C-alpha cells in the first residue's frame, strides 16, 4: 500500500494509535523545550537555552519498500515548544497519531424490505 497525501485520524480506534506512531519513528519530536525561530518544508530551527538547533526534514524520499517518505512541519514560527512535543508528522501520522487512510461515512438503512438481518446495501 502507498501512503495517502491527506490521511485522516480514525474516528473509532484501539487507543494505541499515538504509541504506534511514536514507536514508528517517522514523527519528529522535540528533545528540549524552546522557541521556534524558522520553519519550512526542509527544516525546523529552534532556540533552547541560548543554543540554536536545526532539524532537517525528509521530503519525498524513497523508502526501502519503494514508497514515499516525507515529513510535514506542525509548528509555526514564534511558538514555544515543550519537550516531547510533535514538531513534524510523517506520511502516515496526523497530529502524532497513526492515520493510515480516510474515514468513510456508512449508513445502515432498509431498502424496500429486501434487506434483512445482516444485509447491507
UniProtKB/TrEMBL annotation:
<dbReference type="GO" id="GO:0006351">
    <property type="term" value="P:DNA-templated transcription"/>
</dbReference>
<keyword id="KW-0548">Nucleotidyltransferase</keyword>
<keyword id="KW-0934">Plastid</keyword>
<dbReference type="InterPro" id="IPR007120">
    <property type="entry name" value="DNA-dir_RNAP_su2_dom"/>
</dbReference>
<comment type="similarity">
    <text>Belongs to the RNA polymerase beta chain family.</text>
</comment>
<dbReference type="GO" id="GO:0003899">
    <property type="term" value="F:DNA-directed RNA polymerase activity"/>
</dbReference>
<dbReference type="InterPro" id="IPR015712">
    <property type="entry name" value="DNA-dir_RNA_pol_su2"/>
</dbReference>
<dbReference type="GO" id="GO:0003677">
    <property type="term" value="F:DNA binding"/>
</dbReference>
<dbReference type="GO" id="GO:0032549">
    <property type="term" value="F:ribonucleoside binding"/>
</dbReference>
<keyword id="KW-0808">Transferase</keyword>
<keyword id="KW-0804">Transcription</keyword>
<keyword id="KW-0240">DNA-directed RNA polymerase</keyword>
<protein>
    <recommendedName>
        <fullName>DNA-directed RNA polymerase</fullName>
        <ecNumber>2.7.7.6</ecNumber>
    </recommendedName>
</protein>
<dbReference type="GO" id="GO:0000428">
    <property type="term" value="C:DNA-directed RNA polymerase complex"/>
</dbReference>
<feature type="domain" description="DNA-directed RNA polymerase subunit 2 hybrid-binding">
    <location>
        <begin position="29"/>
        <end position="121"/>
    </location>
</feature>
<dbReference type="Pfam" id="PF00562">
    <property type="entry name" value="RNA_pol_Rpb2_6"/>
</dbReference>
<keyword id="KW-0150">Chloroplast</keyword>
